[in-house]
Amino acid sequence: MARKLVVFDLAGELYGLDIFDVREIVKDTLVTRIPQTPEFVEGVVNLRGKIIPVIDLRKRFGFAKGEKTKDARIIIVDIAGQEAGLVVDSVKEVAAVDETTIETTPDVTTVNAAFVEGLAKKDDKIIIIIKLELLLEVDEKEMLERMQ
What we know:
By secondary structure, the protein is mainly beta. It is about 10% helix and about 50% strand. The protein is built from two helices and ten strands; from the N terminus they run βββββαβββββα. The chain has helices spanning about 55-60, 140-145, and strands at about 1-10, 15-20, 20-25, 40-45, 50-55, 75-80, 80-90, 90-100, 115-120, 125-130. It has a five-stranded mixed beta sheet, with no helix packed on it. A five-stranded mixed beta sheet has the order 3-6-7-5-4.
């Protein structure tokens, strides 16, 4: 059985989100900063009249700040009923991966393993599959909800 993933680049690694969790992909746009939010929260964007909180995945995962390029995108996702934007370096493709090739996460990874559902093999590449529902703590989800 094939599973479709939206594959994106972040800090030189490939990550995937289940296509059913992705609402849309937009070009990196002006983000309005909100005071006293966690460092990984960039702020909010106005997307067709709807205020959406934006999370910088580099910061969320503890990676070094990278240069934003013209390829940067904001992936609008649903995190347990909460819409949010995820800033990524670039979106690569929608890939179909065989569910039987998805392996559990090894103990040592570059990302907090709580966020990682597993590792998919596609051609000669490894795609780290993100568990959106575990991306934020309960209090962080509530804070994002108040931002909308």
